[in-house]
Structure formats: C-alpha cells, structure tokens
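ugh ok so i messed up the first submission bc i forgot one of the chains. this is the corrected input, ALL of the components this time, i swear. 975 residues overall. if the numbers dont match what u have on ur side tell me asap before i send this to the collaborators (the ones from the other lab, u know who)
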Amino acid sequence: MSLEAHSQKQREIEELPQVTIRFAGDSGDGMQLTGTQFTNTSAIFGNDVSTMPDFPAEIRAPAGTVYGVSGFQLQFSSSDIYTPGDVVDCLVAMNPAALKVNLRDLKHGGVIILNEDGFTEQTLKLAGMEKNPLKDGSLGKYTVHTIPMTQSTVRACEEVGLTGKGAARCKNFFALGIVCWLYSRPLEPIIEFIDTKFKDKEQLREANTRVLKAGYFFGETAELFTRVFRVRKAHLPPGVYREVHGNEALAIGLITAGQLANKPIFYGSYPITPASDILHELARHKQFGVKTMQAEDEIAAICSALGASFGGALGVTASAGPGIALKMEALGLAVMVELPLVVINVQRGGPSTGLPTKVEQADLFQAIVGRNGECPLPVIAPQSPSDCFQTAIDAIRIATKFMTPVMVLSDGFIANSAEPWRFPDADSLEPIEVEHPEETNGEDGSFLPYMRDEWLSRPWALPGTPGLMHRIGGLEKEDVTGNVSYDPENHQRMVDLRQEKVDKVADFLPEQEVLNDPDGTAELLIIGWGSTYGAIRETTRRLMRKGTRVAHVQLRHLNPFPKNFGAILERYADRPILVPEMNKGQLALLIRGRYLIDAKPLTKVQGRPFTTTEIMESVEHLLAERGKVAK
Amino acid sequence: MSVTEQPRKYTVKDFGSDQDVRWCPGCGDYSILSAVKKVLAEEGVPPEQYAFVSGIGCSSRFPYYVNTYGMHSIHGRAMAVATGLKVARPDVHTFVITGDGDALSIGGNHTIHTLRRNVDITILLFNNQIYGLTKGQYSPTSPFGKKTKSTPMGSLDQPIAPMALALAAEATFMARTIDMHPKHLMATIKRAMEHKGTSFVEIYQNCNIFNDGALDYAQDRKVRAENVIELEHGKPLLFGKDLDKGIVFDGRQLTVAQVGENGVTKDDLLVHDEKDSESYHAMLTRMKYPELPEPIGVFRSVQRPTYEELVNGQISEVIARKGKGDLKKLIEGRSTWEVREEGA
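and heres the new structure output, hopefully the right one now
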C-alpha cells in the first residue's frame, strides 16, 4: 500500500517475529470490533493470527469502571502460532480502568498507547486510581504514547458534519489507525469493512474512514514514534484461507453435516452465554433448510430436538454448563430411546452461574457421567476454532451411525477466538449415509425397533412408514422388541448393550496421534483435550528449541477413548505424564482410574487459558524431579 | 401425507397395540382410549400417519396401547417433544397425552408456550385432580384444602383453572369433555383433531383408586344435567334436566336464570359463540361448580397460522428469494485470501 511505503521511508523499521496486542476500553468503546478488524487485516496480510476476546458479563457496566472493561488480545506472527500470546507487547487503553486491569499482562518495556482524553479526574476516580499514572512516573518502565484520541476523532468527524457523541464514538477507529501504522498493516481490508457495514449510512461511512486514516496519519506525522514494526508474512501451508470463530465453525459444520446427510438440521436452543452465537449463525442460514427454534427453556430445547430426530431430522441443541444440567434428564431419554442427537456444551466457568464469559473445562465429568443410571454417550472435544467445523460433522456422523446422542465439549475460549482456516472444498467431504427402514425386520413379519446391526445400532424407522409403527420411551426396553420390560436379566443385558455400543464407537474412530515424538524418545508426555491444544503445542515447540523433546497427545475423543490410547500410555509409562486442564484434574482422574497410570494433573481455574510459560514450568519441574530421582 | 393405495376402512382393532393395558380396573382412562381408537378408525387415515407423545403419569402410558408411532417421554415434556416432531414432520398427525400434574405442574411452561406458538397438535389432558402413579398426592387441580397423603391437614394451594390458563396462553382451540360421557367425548376429540393449530382438550377423568367420585357432579349421569352445560355454537346457554335453566350476563358477571320466571325467556340467554371475543371465553373458563354449571364442549375455536407452517414458510420464502443454500459459499465465508507456494 502506498501509505505504508510512504511511512516506512521516514522511520526506522524493526522486524519482529511476532507481536501480541491487546485493545482495552469500556464495553461500549468498540474494542471487540477494533480487535477483530486488526486481526482480519493481519490475516489478509499473510500472518498467522490467534485471538482472545475478554469481555465482561455485564452488557454496559457503568462507563469507566474496572468491571466494565472489555479487552481483545491477538497475536500475529511470521510463523505458525497456536495461542493468542502469553504476555502483551502493546497495550491500547482507552481509559484508566482499562490500563489498570490490563497492565499486569504487559511485558517490561512494552508499548502503551493511551487515549489522553479518557484520563480525567472523574475516570481516574471511577477506576479507583488516586494518582494519575500519566503524571506520577509509575509507567516509567514502559514506552508510553499519550494521544488525544477523542479530540482528534471529533475533529476528523467535523469535516463530514458528524458532531457530539456520535463523533466521539468513532474513536476506536482512530486507535485502530494508529496501531495499523505502528505495525505496518494495510488499511484496505478495514476500509472495505467500513464500506459494507455502513453501506446505507453515508455519513458514518465517511466519518469512520476519515477517522481511521486520521489515526494512521497521526502516527506518521506526530513524531511520537521513533520506529515502526514489521512482522513478515507467515509460511503457512499454501491454500485458500478465511478467518473463523469457534461458534461460527460449529454452525457451519452442522449445516454442512445436514447437507452431507441430505437431512434438515433442527436446532432447539435457549439463549445462554457463550453458546448463543451458534443459534444466531444458524438462524441466518434458512436457505439450507435449517430449522431453528428458540425454545421456552433448556429442557424444551433438547426435547424438541429429540422429537425432531424421532421424525427423521438431525436434532441438535447447545448450551453452557448450567443449561446442560437442565437437559440431563432428556439426554438420558435420548440414550434410552437410542435416537441421534447432538448436544453442544460451550463450557464456561462454573459452578452455577459462575463466570459466564470466561473459559473453563470443568464440565467433562458432567458430560461423561452426569446423568442418572448407567447412561453412556460419546463425547468429543474440538481443539481450536476451525476444528469445530470437523467436530460438528463427526458428531452427526457418530450420532446417526450409532443411533446415540453425542456430546460436544467446546468452551468459551474456542467459541469466541478466531484463527485462519484453510477450509476444505465442499465437494471433497464424505457424504453421511443414513438409512431408514421401509420393511419389517422380524421373522414373523413384525417390526423390532431394538434389533441391532453389527455396530449394535438400532433401525431409525420414521413415523409415516407403513407397517413399522412402534413405541419408544424412557422405561427399560426389552431387548430386540423394545417393549417395556422390568425383567432383571433383561435390564442387565440392556445396560451392557448400551455400554458396548458406545465402546464400539472406538472401532469407528481413527487411531490417536502422538505429536512431536516420531521415534518415541521424548522425555515426557503431555495429554490435553479441547482448547488447551494451542498452549500445549506452543509449549512443546518452545521446549524443542531448548533441546527438550516432549510428546503431545491431544484427545479429541473423551468417550470412548481411542482404541490405541492404552498402548500409548503404556509406551510412556516409564516417563512423566502431564495432563493440563482448566479444571481440578478431571481427565487425569479418568485416565488414572481407567489405565492405572500415574498421570499428573496440572490444573488452572482462573477463567483464562493456560499460558505456555505455565505449562513449560510444570514440565521443567517434573523433569527436574525425575533427574533428582535418577541420581 | 403420503397417500399410497386406495383408501381403506379401518377398525378399532387396527389401532390397538399388542400390549396389555395396565391401568387399574375401573379407571376412566379406559373409556378415553376406547373413544380415541373409535375416532381414529372413523377417520380413515392409516395408523402410521399418527404419533402419540406423552410425558409421565398414568395417562402417559397411553401411547403403548395404540398401534401408531409413539413416544413415552419424560415428565412434563411431551409438548416440547411433540413440537419438535411436528416442526420436522408437519405431515404426521401428532397427539399429546398428558395429565394434570404432567401438563400443569412440572410441564406447565411447555403448555403455555406450545399454545402460544399454535403448533398443530392435539392435546388430551386427563384431569383427575390427583397424582395417581405416585399413589395419591394432591395435584395442581385439586381443590384448596384437599386432604391427601402429602397434605394430611389439607392442601394450601389454590387450584389452577386449565381453561383459563390456556386462554391466557393464546389458545386457538379449547374444549372440555368427560370420560363417562362417551358420545360427547368422541365428538369433542373429533372436533379437536379437525382444528388446525393446537387443540387443548381437558377431559374430566375419574381416578377410582385415589380420588374416586371427586368429579361425580359432572360425571354421574343422574346429576350431570344440573351441573354442566353443553356448549353448542350458535345455541343459547341452556342446562338442567328439562333444559329450563340458562345463563344470563347482567353486565358484570354471569348468573343462572330460570327460563319462564321473572320474565326471562330463551332470548335473554347468552348464545354460545366459539369465535366470539376473548372476554366472553374468559368468563366461560371461570364458571365453576357449585356456583355455576361448568361448560363442556368447544369453548373456543379460532384460526391463526400454525407454528410449523410459519417455520417452514420462512424457509420457503428465503429459498424463493435467494435460492437454495450454496455450501461452497457458506464454507468460504465473506472474505478469503490465498497463501501461495513459496517462490510462486
């Protein structure tokens, strides 16, 4: 871009391998939008990117308070990356509260860009700051740029006749302009975005574009910055990419699965953070025949989905932990009636209402054993935002093949984070074969709804099919006939059969892969599941650079475990096995119970993902302990 | 509905399943089962075109005894299951069989929301004013002060009026009938099935084990005529053994009047109108024995688009406007970029 070329002539350019930026302001300041746009332009530029929005549970907490601070962190890099970064290189803060909340994550010597107009006596008081950090020297160890963003924004808006609050509201684009200049980012993708967003609002379109450019030119002309930074394009595998969030990828995956199975998706859902965006996304795509229903409660959401499955649709429901708790009785019914159903849990901090907008992985036990009775069902966890796409398809594939509900364990981090996605060609995806019987299957010409195939799956006979009328329900079924039965031996047999069927899913799954240890000589094994993938992957790479090889298993299938998982554990049994989880050690306990292996939990429940440093320190500690024993 | 061969006649036997009926001898549920099977046989629609969905309770065993598609689901949730089924399969005639505890206590929320959505299903609510399957606790329709195992000193809850609740939930079809009045029962079920939208039928049903005789005033043929009023569209509100009593509206409330006394003629009586205003229907829902005779028959039957029509209509509308979804475009999203081979 010409703007870029021009500015780089005048300043020293420092090459950086990667940069982590955090935008922070009031929840009404548009920080999420700013972060998203910066991410987008970085991805299009050719960097690898990883993001982490962090917003409060309150929609508009009182302006200027610390509990109203909304943040958006992203890392962009010239190599492939897996996390949004451990420490922040550059913090953009729109007011004192945003500075106060986020300063602890900024690295020593990091860059702070402040909106000077946001620092008033009143906002300092609201943030609980007695002294003005801009004046008391407390920011001495950082490179601080204090810029009158609001004033500059209002001035830029005046030219197009936008004044007052409406004008001041554009200040996030001023901040974005400055940061784009500082990190040599192209503006075109952002301008294109503004053009689309304000297609019918000429004044706002013009105002925001001007403000964005004003920010950019401010960086160039104000001579505050002695140098600019550049992060080269990453060497990503060739192909066509897009950016995708986890919830978005789940929705697209569900629609795709519906198309692959040639069946409508029925999505019953009750609004809940952080799962609601799946409903929003699906509701936008009715031209794929998707039927969405905002149910009266969590129970109606799952029950309507199950009813739809009984009718031959692909029933899906989603929620977060508290809502999943309400769905559990119906989920037991789904196990009993053996109908396909997908239940998505976008996990958040618990228990109870807990931390609605923060991440946790503490619903693993709830998913695996959280129902009354012996009530097994397959559980799958996506490892990244883009992986949600395949996970949704896998869930539908398993649910229909095995006539079973399937639980998908996503989480708030995956749901709201974005990453570049080398998406597949729709034509390359394998169809999902679903059969509905038309003929009876009993020797006497009767229909036996609980007669099983080689996978122990029962026939999915649909209402409307002549001769196959049958009744299902939550009372124990007689083997084969499906009639109500209280017979003791039959109950034992049916409990065993339901378990065996779910265990059999493992035969249908690919074998578990071990990352980072081709010859099996790693010093330690890390086992993760879900969104810890990025932090673990990054850790193993950092350790490799220091000369320590650590093997990595990221479990996608948590019930049943992959067929070769036991063999993998045996192979590493003579070395430390570390299981980092955002809970109190639930997977570690399952592994210990099931395989009698001394898996060591590394736990964190702070509503934030692991940093690579945390995992690395734990690995180094375990290896040091081991060294001591060996001596 | 997939019509296959030529229409054939069905008998009650075609709608009976091979399962033994396990209700207590003398239970009112038997007569309702028999009435439903008779009506279905008369309809001439094959059994595979019907689905019966139920919750939990004595009445909810019903699906096992009809040879159609069926699901005996969980307590209170039948209407939610039926809603999903109907949205997925508008061609399947769907019944919900429920009770006073199932539909008005644990599943009360679904009752409200199913009615306001106007899903095209037929709800048969067996109201026996007691919890039977759990062996005799008071229900949400038991009278205040009802002494049961769980309320030895009398219940402290005001009973709910199912019809008033249905009206408040924007019901398009509401009717009441009686298990021991087979002709009326069958005619009412038939009307309910014909209605397009949610039809809500309260059936007074006797639990001869835990609440025998609680509804005698309406069920017992000897006294019924004095205590209930059979609603008929366009006919005056007349009741009594000799049809000599009627209901008049004094400008503030409904009262009973003796026809032929005090100058009251049949012309002074209220005339039933299923389509009339909600406030009239509201008054009907509040008529309670012993102060007033209780209406039976169709209270209200009005038309409104059904939920599944609207859901599927939005889909057809979008497809008509934009064409069927293009999966490639969906996966691609709004903007993409290409990473080329190194050096390319």
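quick check: Residues 132 and 355 of chain A are 31 Å apart (CA to CA). that seems consistent at least. The domain at 243-428 of chain A is CATH 3.40.50.970 (Rossmann fold).
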